[in-house]
Amino acid sequence: MPGKPKFYVTTPIYYTNGLPHIGHTYTTIVADVIRRYKRMRGYEVVMTTGTDEHGVNVERAAKKAGIPESEFVARMADAWRSLWDELGLTADEFVRTTDLRHVRTVQWLFRLCRENGYVYKGHYTGQYCIYDNAFVTDAKPGDNCPDCGRPLETVTEENYFFKLSAFQKPLLDFYKKNPGFIQPESRRNEIVSFVEGGLKDLSITRTTIRWGIPVPGEEPHVFYVWFDALTAYLSAVDGPEYEKRGMWPADLHLVGKDIIRFHTVYWPAFLMAAMLPVPKQVWAHGWFLMDAAKMSKSKGNVILPRPIANLLGIDALRYFLLREVVFGQDGNFSYDALVTRYNSDLANGLGNLASRTAALIEKTFGGKIPKPGERKPQDEALAQETQAAIGEVLENYENMSFARALEAIWSAIASADKYLTTEQPWALGNSEQEQSRRATILWTTAELLRIVTVLAHPVLPASTAKIWTLLGLPHSVAAVELDGLRWGQLVPGKQLGKAQTLFPRVEKDEAIERIEAMANEERNPAPAAKPAASATPAAAAAAPQAAPEKIGIEDFAKVEMRVGQIKTAERIVGADKLLKLTVDIGTEIRQICAGIAQYYEPEKLIGRKVAVVVNLAPRKLRGVESNGMVIAAAVGPEGRPVLAGFPDEDVEIGARLK
Ligand code: MSP
User: Fold this and answer.
1) Confidence (pTM)
2) Rounded CA gap, 346 and 354, in Å?
3) 10 Å Cβ neighbour count for 65?
């Protein structure tokens, strides 16, 4: 019997100088959706992710944290890995670039390229961005990095060069022969014209970096970050022994548009030089933006996945990211849109259809899937529409058109809602004929629900598993073969399973506030929970240690509190609980957001003296910058805020609280 066809999908390996945000999570979620989808189509799938632990940034961060590089990257890799586990995104292979299997593979690839005559020694002087680990061609001394905007440094090195120039024609021929290699189409055109413009040889070793994979026998040369990182895809599937594993070449590299060139020019060229098979496809998706800018740690505008998953469930985040933006294009991230979609599509859409259907079957058929009677044209129409949706959804998954696939699924859900509303099974009486009609309606609805549950499974793995149980269906939804999915397979007579909570409705403002509060807490963990050795929140996350119960006076002294006077106060549109204040703290007037809108009238606050924490890092609440914090007691079970104040004496504005 022939084995299953194989499919190998990768995410980029992520830098260890920060923790995953929504952008990284997006790529990893897409890889996971594809993995689940391909498995349901009968493939044996391997999904790889990992950590890129090379370079100056790691050296610096480790120094700042006061720990050896190896320990720093081990903590960070653990933090990435455990976050993926927590989000249900555990990869089949997790490669660290410090893994021995990876080091071996990089050195092997270099040897092959060199033996085949594509490596030579030379000198290189150029403008180098130490943050992006890249020389910037065409930059002059004093320029800033075109990608991150930070100053470039002039660097001269003795390097090993890779003869990239020799691959202009082979690459162009390859793109021509494999028109699907670079996706989407617009990126393909961009890369083709880049390569047509000519390729310069590429330096692939460094002597300016200590923390990297050594070039055997050529120390202090270490490999250039991209020669090292790209090879991780091959190390993950057994590197030099790739033929035995049978997973190489990769079927799909998923990347953000920022790194498409490395994947579609350098990577195939390295592999061609080594005479190894080239991956089948590279798909570059767009960015999730915050206020029209790319999220980045340095801009301080990153959205964290964990708080969203904690409050709304990981499925809600998966659904939102895939539904909101056409795969390949940029999109804006907003909590508002997230919660709106959650309530409308998940709570009121799929969740409501599932619980409504189950409740009706429970009430009128003792919880057993009824046997349908005679079919009316409207039943047939719904059946045909759903059968057609199966084809449409699969085609869209296949083309990576996730938003469209979900649209088609949700249109089937809307049809079911409409069908129930028109057919009104609850209004039918108890005559044999009416009972039979009711049975047909409810079987039809349950069958539609079964089909959308299967189709939505790759995107909503946790909640579709619950609906599967609710419908009392055998095995697991993940085991359903998509190729065999047809209308009419729901077997009558089976008992429904236990009712499950799917997507409880949330109140928008409250949900956003809770997510933001959790995100703030994760970014700035309370001092008591913060390990002493950590220099960054990332390192803190990576280094759980016993938390001291008390803090020393020196810790308290770090918090600077002053007397402030409220100058203006106004409500924030769309945020019921927040007031935007301007507060005079003696040395300046600060804008501060306070969660007191439900208890204080803005006009009555003007002139009031309050206690203010003035050295908190600025943060944004509902898009409004808040630069400090007004102190209040949390009173009663609902935590009603009562502002701390100075009723006894007319204290001076700006006086320090001790
Ligand atoms: N280490 C390199 C990749 C080496 S792969 C051989 C790297 N790492 S990274 O940590 O910067 O991650 C980059 C990837 O994260 C992007 O290619 C993209 O997949 C994802 N994203 C990071 N920010 C993003 C957004 N704001 N939006 C969407 N995805 C983004 O580059």
Assistant:
1) 0.81
2) 10
3) 22
